[in-house]
Design goal:
Length: 139
């Protein structure tokens, strides 16, 4: 009985997380109450190398996606959102490419020194998680 309540609370929390996403076109059609393991939390490890990075230098944005301690090799969506601090900076949303073992990568570079907020929007079935990190780009 207690377990059911906890499960429902967790589901509601995930629902809130999904609704709180800035991206409005998420597909919620897969949200049913059948728990076949697909409702286990999706764990996303976002890493950026190097940080800080210089203008025009290559930077690797890596997203490792796991669920039930298993690598997720078929995530529905892994989108990298890059938000500059500067008002004239470029806001970008680009899909990351799966390179194997649940690792999704976006290689990019920056034209303008700034502090950027990097968000990885990861969708696996009905689950959505979106960790965020800051990246400093220097001249
Ligand atoms: Cu999101």
């Amino acid at each position: 009985m207690k377990r059911t309540i906890v499960g429902t609370g967790l589901f509601m929390l995930m629902l809130l997380v999904a609704v709180g996403c800035s991206n409005n076109n998420h597909d919620h059609s897969g949200m049913d109450m059948v728990n076949d393991g697909s409702l286990s939390p999706v764990v996303v490890d976002l890493s950026i190398q190097p940080d800080p990075v210089k203008v025009k230098e290559k930077v690797m944005i890596e997203v490792l996606v796991t669920q039930n301690n298993k690598n997720v090799t078929d995530a529905d969506k892994v989108i990298i959102e890059i938000n500059p601090t500067a008002v004239n900076g470029k806001h970008i949303e680009t899909p990351a490419t799966h390179v194997g073992d649940g690792k999704y990568v976006l290689e990019t570079s920056f034209d303008q020194a700034d502090k950027y907020s990097i968000t990885s929007h990861v969708t696996v079935g009905p689950m959505h998680t979106m960790p965020k990190k800051e990246l400093t780009v220097t001249d």
